[in-house]
Amino acid sequence: MFELTDLILFASAGLMLNFTPGPDMIYCATRSVGQGKAAGVVSALGIGGGSVVHMAAAAAGLSALLMYSSVAFEVVRYVGAAYLVYLGIRTILAGKSSGKAERLENASLGRIFWQGVFTNILNPKVALFYLSFLPQFVDPARGSVALQILILGMVFNVTGTLVNAAVGLLFGQVGSWLEGHPGFWKAQRWSTGGILVGLGASLALSGRK
What we know:
It is a single chain. The protein is an all-alpha fold. The chain contains nine helices and no strands. It has helices spanning 4-18, 23-35, 37-60, 64-68, 70-93, 109-121, 124-133, 145-177, 182-205.
């Protein structure tokens, strides 16, 4: 269905985009610093799971609803923004004692996974990205457009998940190094919560571009 050169071109373009710092990468980094490498990697897997939903929606043409319906876009955008703000406030309020107890809430890996999934699903700009980026590499003459979008989306999602997982491992190592610095966790809790609240506010205030 795809020429090897076309897939290489797409993967290269997608990889460059995946290496660009954004909300997903920041989320994995802060999760990893707060709760260790496993939490960062699981967050990356959760974000990848959320991307599968956007990919499937794009293939089915559902993402067009967000492109052409301002009401649908606003509803999803504000729900996603509220969820990020909620996570940020919970992070700031978690932990009242000193030292390690003031790191990010010790959530289960399953819970962290689903937080990553919903954080990604509730960002309508991800859906708009899939709808605008993937079709550039689709050729109806090759066959099913939906199948082509699924294949391209999976390639992009796999590379993105690998990059985010690497970020989680890297920042998890930093978190391990900081185990002996109790004063760091209070600042980390506030900074992480602030970042999440900021991401939510940015998503809520940003316009459709």
